[in-house]
Amino acid sequence: MQEYLLLMVGAILVNNVILARFLGLCSFMGVTTRVDTAMGMGLATTFVITVSSMLNWAAQAYLLEPFGLGYLRTVVFILVIAGAVQFTEMTVRKVSPPLFQMLGIYLPLITTNCAVLGVALLLIEGRMSFIESTVFAFASSLGYSLVMVIFAGLRERLALAEIPRLFAGPPIGFITAGLLALAFMGFSGISTV
Amino acid sequence: MFLLLAVGSLTVIGVVLGGILGTAARLLAVKVDPLEADLQALLPGSQCGQCGYVGCAQAAKALAAGDAAATATLCPPGGKATAEALAKRLGVSIDLSDHVERGPEYAAINEELCIGCTRCLKECSVDGIFGATKQMHTILVESCHACGKCIPVCPTDAITMRPIPVTLATWHWPKPATAH
Fold first, then answer.
1. CATH number for the domain that contains residue B73
2. How many domains does chain B have?
3. Same domain as B44, residue B68
4. What mean pLDDT is predicted for residues A14-18?
5. Is the same domain home to B109 and B78?
6. Per residue in B67-103, pLDDT tens?
């Protein structure tokens, strides 16, 4: 139990997908202008990362490894992720039209979010078991959502702050992101796996 | 052998995923009324709520469903062109002889009358009104889309609609009388 907890803390805070591994930066800069869109994006990405990691783990364990097809990993993973995203989109559209309207264009764009592929590749690299990899994927995506919401909150305040004209908009966003990454480096003092 | 295995496995994954998605697309298909989609495309899409519905999507839904309250003339900002286009798509005839076409307008607060009650502030659908309790309010002209929802709530009748003045920056050639 303790090792799973450590794994989760490590994936959420210490090796945060966005601020320590620098994955998924386009959505990090792109959809964090408002807290609620950031939250929606975070939720949808959490779901996709968790589901596609499970599928990718299975693909790695039962297809790529036994047949020595490791060099096809990227292609197969992308295929599986695209399928999972498409399926998620259809399900959300059927089950919850309001959520579908809220997420809109962000849903299909998750396919190209490198955090999704990155997490899948990381858990193969770490040679994790199925449960470990599911916990790791879920925790990583929680870390992703956390940083998205924090950064969106910061940017909402930045929008109202008095910023020198030279820095207004994306520049101050990048500087803030750098400071946030520095702050998250503080977590690396926590010893984890 | 190696090549066949690689090609074969990718083909199998592709076919399986495609099959699952194809089945899912059928099982999870959402029916969209083509009439509703067309009507929504004809509406301005500014979600002002003057028609009495929450937004243009809801108005299009009511129009498509044939609600008694919803008629082709329901959209005030759309003007004559929108009403005619809606009537054409719905296949009904409308009488627009007493229709007065209004140009683009904006709402303005008469600042001498404003008592700072914040009622119009809460009503504004585009957050285009600035102000605070007991302080004079003002309307951001560039945000205002003239839905007029702030006018009836004003206790001192301080809000009026004014035509947007034509300047060199906003002037354009007259548009065709009807939309096609």
1. 1.10.15.40
2. 2
3. yes
4. 90
5. no
6. 766 777 778 777 788 888 888 888 888 777 777 777 7
**A76/A154 Cα distance (integer angstroms):** 37
Measure the CA–CA gap between A153 and A176, rounded to whole angstroms: 11
Q: Which of B28, B56, B127, B130 is the best mutation test for A, with the most CBs of A within 10 A?
A: B28
**Encoding tokens for residue B16?**
């399986």
B38 lies in a domain? yes
B58 and B86 housed in the same domain: yes
The domain segmentation of chain A, as residue ranges, is 14-24+31-187
CB contact under 8 A, B13 and A80: yes
Interchain proximity B5–A67, CB inside 8 Å:
yes
The predicted pLDDT at position A50 comes to 92
Within-domain flag for B26:
no
pLDDT digits (tens, 9 = 90+) for A94-141: 887 877 877 767 778 888 888 999 999 998 888 889 999 999 999 999
Q: For A31-57, what is each residue's pLDDT tens digit?
A: 888 888 888 888 888 988 999 999 999
CA–CA distance from B113 to each of A174, B116, B134, B137, B160 (Å)? Answer: 45, 9, 12, 10, 11
Residue B14 with chain A: CB contacts under 8 Å: 79
Sign of CA dihedral B3, B9, B13, B19: positive
pLDDT for position A192: 53
Best of A51, A56, A67, A107 to disrupt the B interface (most B CBs within 10 Å) is A67
- Cα A174–A179–A184 angle (5° rounding)? 120
Q: What pLDDT is recorded for position B5?
A: 84
pLDDT of res. B177: 65
Domain ranges, residue B150? 105-163
ipTM score of complex? 0.70
Q: CA B36, CA B59: separation in Å to the nearest integer?
A: 9
Q: Are B109 and B137 in contact (CB under 8 A)?
A: yes
Partners of A97 on chain B (C-beta within 8 Å) are 30
